[in-house]
């Protein structure tokens, strides 16, 4: 799908990946861009820079997602592309409090569900639309320092797969963004050797990959192309892969 002339909504749009996508889509000639985030401040600056609309939105709230979609449609008409990009870094393991698990689930999974629940049927009825969900390479591979992140990112990818299966023949395109490390506020202070083994991308570099992949309408958006090879190794010999991941954990994190 070409970006030019399209009405676009981006969550997590105040900084990082969301901001870079808004700027790139604007440069590509998007008809309108609505950016959403938790608070105004920088969000309004991004909206102004792309001649767009800023909407305060907590993606963990279905009512907020519904309000975001309503305001974007009210201002610009049908939404052609919805980028469900908001995310957070609340790491933990099985012993981590339920509240942290739930927050990860709400932001990394249910936010995608809430958007698709409203938009996928509308897009299918029109025979055209695009859902782009930000996940992570951790959702295809795993995470050696967090179960909460890896589990919910896996679920995000599974949900995107089901949307493509259900709506792909009805004109609704679905892509899932799965980068390794990107230099954003969320990774600040965590730029370590494990996550950056294949390089730390700038958000603008990632935005280039997103536009190129959407143009080809491919499901997986892989700014770090090595991830595809890692997936193949994982599925070729799961036990060997898990053994390698344990070695990686021990090397960088110890045996805890």
**Overall pLDDT confidence:** 94
Percentage beta strand: 5-15%
- Helix fraction? 40-55%
Query: Rg to the nearest angstrom?
Result: 18 Å
Give the total of beta strands. 7
User: What characterizes the major β-sheet?
Assistant: 7 strands, parallel
Structural class: alpha/beta
Explain this structure to me?
It is a single chain. The protein is of the alpha/beta class and 256 residues long. It has a single domain (7-253), classed as 3-Layer(aba) Sandwich (Rossmann fold). The protein contains nine helices and seven strands; from the N terminus they run βαβαβαβαβααβαβαα. The chain has a seven-stranded parallel sheet, with helices on both faces. α4 (98-126) packs parallel to α6. It starts with 6 loop residues before the first strand and ends with a helix.
